[in-house]
Amino acid sequence: MAAIDTEHPSWRVAAGTFVSYGILLAVVTVLLFLVPYAVFAFGL
User: Which UniProt keywords apply (predicted)?
Assistant: First the structure.
């Protein structure tokens, strides 16, 4: 049985999708939770 070809462009697309989704989740979390917390806690 042949080994998985990790040089295929689909692996790079999949990795880029997961990384960009993680970045998007981090940005949304900051906007929805940390910004309102800072506004109410510190009166910004």
Answer: Membrane, Transmembrane, Transmembrane helix
* The dihedral sign for the CA sequence 19, 25, 29, 31: positive
Q: The dihedral of CA 31, 33, 39, 42: what is its sign?
A: negative
**pTM for the predicted model, two decimal places:** 0.69
Question: Contact 32/25 with Cβ under 8 angstroms?
Answer: no
pLDDT, one tens digit per residue, over 5-31 is: 778 889 899 999 999 999 999 999 999
